[in-house]
Structures are given as structure tokens and as C-alpha cells.
Amino acid sequence: MKHILTILSALLIASCSSSPSGNESAAPPGKVETPATLEEIEKSFEKYKGVGPVSEVEVGDEIDQTLADEGKVIFEAKCTACHKTDKRFIGPGLKGITERRTPEWTMNMILNPEKMTQEDPIGKLLLIEYNGSPMANQNLTEEEARKVFEYFRTL
Amino acid sequence: MKTFHLIFKIFMLLPLMWSISSCQDGSGDKKGALGSNIAEKVYVAPGEHDEFYAFVSGGFSGQLAVYGLPSGRLFRVIPVFSVDAEKAYGFNEETKPMLETSYGFVPWDDSHHPDLSQTNGEIDGRWCFINGNNTPRIARISLQTFETEEIIEIPNSAGNHSSSFVTENTEYVVAGTRFSVPAPQVDMPIAEYKGKFKGAMSFIKVNPEDGHMNLEFQIMMPGFNYDLAHPGRGKSHGWMFFSTYNTEEAHTLLEVNASQNDKDFIAAVNWKKAEEYMAAGKFKEMPADYRHNVYDESTHSATSNKMTTVKVLDPTELPGLVYFLPTPKSPHGCDVDPSGEFIIGSGKLSASLTAHSFPKMLAAIESESFDGEAYGIPILKYEDVVGGIVEQAGLGPLHTEFDGKGNAYTTFFISSEVVKWKLGTWEVVDRQPTYYSVGHLMIPGGNSRKPFGKYLLAMNKITKDRYLPTGPELTQSAQLFDISGDKMQLLLDFPTVGEPHYAAGLPASLITENSKKYYKLEENNHPYAIKSESEAKVVREGNVVHIYMTTIRSHFAPDNIEGVKVGDMVYFHVTNLEQDFDVPHGIGVIGANTSELLIMPGQTETFVWNPKKVGVWPFYCTDFCSALHQEMQGYVRVSPADSNIELTWSLDDE
């Protein structure tokens, strides 16, 4: 008897829940299937721009050394508690990152890590790969994130 | 039979189910199926915010509690005058100086009357001030960080009760003396109190830029008990009003001996006049011993400064500085209406309320129609200054607040009620019981030119049967009334931290925009701060060891330390490298004779540990920080005092 009542109530309450908020995918729906592994993604990483404020980044042919030097200072101050350049630490090692991720994706990961690890297909896989350790939001400005990206190009 | 029961129960549940399934969206006019709209008025849905902040004094807890109204939800207890192990206040090296006094480190006080900073007579959302009653002090709390930033001790004072009331441009925070004392203190017979004890009124200047306080001057008043105060505003701006009792100057059995006179006084102090006398050099510089403690947000550390003199004005020699307004009988509350015209004296042993008229007071002073003097201070004639009387409104009137719509609300302790009456006609228009024995009351902005007359918070001394019993000690409480209509409506009871004396409230919008989210690492000037893990180190200076440590989700750097010895004095200087809202880290180490640290993002805090036993001892993060919080731990190896183990430190063996 108790069960019947519980089920009845549950049904009635359930009928009230508002429509689920759409999880906005980083890539347009239907065009990119969420690949099962990071290796697969890295074969077609150009498609992934991430979730966040950055939709397009202009990257020069040559490395802008001034920008990169400033980016190094920011990286060392705000990121090295969890990232090393040459190897995996709390988070991924960053050498070669520009060959695995787009500039937009990289900057969005820096600027918007909470949403990236919840909504972006790569971000979600990374969160699992790194044992649920959250990427800390260090509140960099977009300009600072751009400099850090330029630094990554020198690695 | 069973089937019948089932059908019956389903039928009984149907209305409830219907009400659940009808999915009200929380907007519009809701006539709830349950018949009452009171619950809706205090219901703040999950994830939504309250309309007002209420800063409620913690009384004998020494702290200040922050609630939301109308929900009555407790958000934070701000440590002010008492140590707080949860937040390391008074335990870490940075905040210990905040509780230094001329008597040494005092870990407790009795906090009474919060008041908010104002600009042009309106609440501006910058600072909250509150007084410590027992060891006289005034504190200033930042409404950006919700931290105590400054505490100034008040010399020549005892029972710092007619405090901390703010003038309408935050020119001064005022602190009066409840227990008159010899000033300066001296070894003398208690029975020679009369004529020899003094009651200092302290005017603390507030720097409009950073809020820093300075004890500008004291007015050395006769040895009465100065109970409460409020500033003039509008037309009475420039004056401060203090209620007095024990004008008998009794020194023993005050409950009888200080209740002899039919009338005591409200002291009207012309502080603009005091400024003139100060500028003219009419003060005496008096030796004094008090502390001024300031917390610096940039170094995340407090310093305690020893102060040695105070400037004193003598009202018996300086005409026009103070006048006495006769007021029946042992007045407690001393409240000024939003226009500044009326000063309400609540004679707690009188059944009626007295409203003095400020224009009448000025006229009486002008015509010098005095009814004698007390210690050279002119006493005005009662008939000349009374603007109105609220007759026989209740028993034991204490405090009055205003709604800005011409109504006043007075608490009555003995008859346990709030009485609403009209300014000008002095008629009682409503009364509501409180549960029980109400003391103060608060309307957001109620001590300003512009009250927000929507809610009234009554604060009760006794709760008896209102809550589940918790042994002999019962909670005190606050009760929320809706005062938007003609009649007050009781909406909510909620328990409070300690005994709530006064409170101060304001619209949340005045605070939320400026609320601090984290401290920028670049702006951290703590002498032991490090800004990245690469700077982490351990330094030995004799038997003192300094650990420069960082935290980020979810590890310490360093997390392995060796070479510490029994008998060392080990300082953990911990910088939280996080730069995001709501990501503090904590740290505790086994056997430390102090509290944890709770370090806000970008902040540095320090605790000291004296390892007593040889071994390998863990430390860990005390504030759940991420899915890997349980992994946030480390070890310190402690060797015998005479060992020669090298001092080393590492993270991930690097």
C-alpha cells in the first residue's frame, strides 16, 4: 500500500519537473559524434572549439615572442601548481598542446573550466582521465589567456 | 478493511497531490491551497536570494550574525570580539593582534549594538560598527569582506553600552559609558562615587576613504549611567542624544537606589560645538592607555598599536556643549525619528513614552529658560521641550524604530509586545505580542533618514516553550513582522546566535555588487606569502622553523617535510593559490595547540606548532575542496632534539 502511494506521488511530482536544460555541446549537434577516447579526438581536434567566451583566435604564422614571454610569467604564477610543461602532473603536461587542441579550446579551458569539464566532450573525458581533479579557474583575463596560449606555442 | 483504508488514504491525499501537481511557478498572486499566505511571505525558494541583510548582534557570544530577511536564514557569524576556532580568528598569527587590549589579549566580549555607515543620512553599505560592552571597544567590519578590519579600545570608559552609533555622514561613531568610573582610574573608596566618578562620551572620527577610526575627543560627563544613544539627523544633524539613568549616582543596590528620581535625563550633545572647542584648543590632553588594532587587507595581517593620550572636553566649563532634557523615568532607548524632529525617550519604569521636540529644545536653549543645572550643565524645563507623549502604551518601553511613513514602533519588555503609534498624533494604532520579553527591534534603515518600512525584526530575550528544549539553556530568538499594512503581521520565528541586542538591516542590493570574491595574489603583501609552488621552502633560524607552503586543489606544496625537531617552533605560513570564488582551503596538524587555518583564495595565514613527540605526523586540508580533498594531506617528520637530520622538503619526491 505504501508503495502504491509513493509511486503515485512520485508520478505526480515528476510530471511537474521543468524541461531539462539543454546541455549545449561544444560542437554543432549531429555533426560530431562524441568519440570514445582522447586518442580518437586528437585525430580531428580542429573541430573542437570548446565552451566559453572564445570563438575565434587569430594566430600569427610566427610566434610573437613578447606575447609568449608575458604568457610564461602568467603561466608560472597561476598554473604551475598543477601543470608541468614536460610531463603529466595534477593536470596534463602542456608540451605539444597546440598540436592536440585548437587555440579557442585551450583558451576556453583556461577561462571557463567549470563548464568545459561538464559540457565539452574533451573536457568531460579529461576530468575522468585526471581522476576527477577539477581544473581550477584562476580568473585570468581573455588577454592573459591569449598570452599563455602564445607561450604554449614555444614549448 | 485494508482496501478501504487504502482508498480512504488516496482520497485524503488527492488535494495534496493536486496542489503539488498544479506546478505554481512562484509568480503572481498566490492564494495557496493550504489557506495561509504567511509561509509564502517568508519563503525564499532554493537558489533565490533574500531581499535584505540583517546584522544581528551576538550579545554574549561577542560576535555579529548575518541573516537574510525575510527567510531568517543564517549566512555567517562574523567573529569580532571573541575568538572563533572555525575561522582561526584570534588563533592565527595574523588576527591575534585584533584582540589585544591594554589588559593584554582578551578572547571574549559582549557585543551589543551594530550600526551601519551612512552618507547624507542614508545607509551606504560600506561598514558595520559594533561595540564591545565589557572591555570597552568599538569594531569596524567591512561589508565587502565581512571581516573585522579594526578595533579601537575606549579609555576612561566601562560598560561601553551607549555605543556604537553613527552620525549621518559617518563623521563619528559614538561610544558612551554605562558604568561611570574614576577617570583617570585611582585607588579610592567605592562609597565616594558621587561627584568623583565620571562618564566619558567618546567621539571616534571615521576616515571617509578607508574607514579608519581615531578617538578624536572625549566629553567627560558627570557620573551617571549613559545607557543608549542615537544621532540627530536632518534638522538635528550635529547633535547626539544619550539616555541616562542613575542620576542618583548610587554605587550599590542600583535596582532600588537608582530608581528614586521621577525623571532622569536625555543628554543632548552638540558635537559641532565640540568641534569648535577642539579647533579652539579648549581640550585637555590626558594620559591614557588603550589599543588601536588594524587589519590590513594587503598583508592579511593585523597590528596592535599602543595609544597613550586622549583629548578631553569638560562640559562643566564649556557652555553650549551639553544640555539635559528631563525624561521619565530611567529612560533606556533614545531614538530619533527619520526627520530628526523628535527624540523618543523610553522611560523603562514609566508607562508612557516621551517625545522631545528638537525645535522646542532649540527655542528653550535660545531663551535660556533653565530648570537649574547638574554639575554646571543646564537642565531644560520638561514642559518646554516635550513634543508629545504616547500615554499608557504598555509596560516597560525599551526601544523605538520608524518606518518612514509617519509610524513608530516601540518594544515593551514587561508586557512583551510591539506597539505601533503615530508620530504627531501620538495615538496607538496597533499592538502585537512577542514571544517573549522583547528587547530591541530593527527596521532596515530604521536608524536613518530613509527607513525601508517593509519588515520589522523583534529580538526576544526569552523563548521558553517556542522551540524544542535543549537542556536548561534555551535559544534567544528573533521574530519577523510584516509592517507593510495597517496592522503588523507576525511572519516568522527564528533562533539567534547568543542574545541579540540591537541589529541593523539594509537592502541586499547595497552590498552584493561590492562583495569580495577572492583576494588577488598580485596584491598579497603578506611578509611570508609565496606566489607559486616553485617558491615553496622551509627555513630554519635556530629552533624556529618557517614553512612557506601553498595550497591548490588538491595538494600542499611541500607535502613532505623532514628535519623538524622536538622543541622547535614551527610556523606554517600557508598561501592559498586559488583565484576563484568560494575555494578556501583549510589546514590542521595533529596535536597543534591552536585552531585550524581557513585560508581564503589568494590569502596567506599562519599558525604555530610546537612538535612535542618524535615521529611522523600528518596534516591535512580541513575544508572540502574537490573530489580529491581526501587526498590533500602531507607529513612532517619530527626527530629528536639532538638529531642531525637535514632539513628537506618535497612534493612528489621533487
Task: Characterize the structure shown.
The complex is a heterodimer of chains A (155) and B (654). Chain A has 155 residues and is mostly helical. Chain A contains 7 helices and no strands. Chain A has a domain at 35-51 and 63-153: Cytochrome Bc1 Complex, Chain D, domain 2 (Orthogonal Bundle), CATH 1.10.760.10. In chain A, 45% of the residues lie in helices and 0% in strands. Chain A is globular, with a radius of gyration of 20 Å. Chain B has 2 domains: 52-512, Methylamine Dehydrogenase, Chain H; 529-650, Immunoglobulin-like. Helix content of chain B is 8%, strand content 43%. Chain B has 7 helices and 45 strands. In chain B, the strands form 10 sheets. In chain B, strands 6-7-8-9-17-18-13-12-11-10 form a 10-stranded mixed β-sheet, covered by helices on one side. A 6-stranded mixed β-sheet of chain B has the order 41-40-43-44-38-45, with no helix packed on it. In chain B, strands 35, 36, 37, 39 and 42 form a 5-stranded mixed β-sheet that branches. The model of chain B is unreliable at 6-35 (pLDDT under 50). The chains are: A mainly alpha (155), B mainly beta (654). The A-B interface holds A 1, 4-5, 8-9, 12-13, 15-16, 76-78, 80-82, 89-90, 131-134, 136-139 and B 2, 5-6, 9-10, 13, 17, 20-21, 23, 518, 521, 531-534, 550, 552-555, 557, 577-580, 583, 626-628, 652.
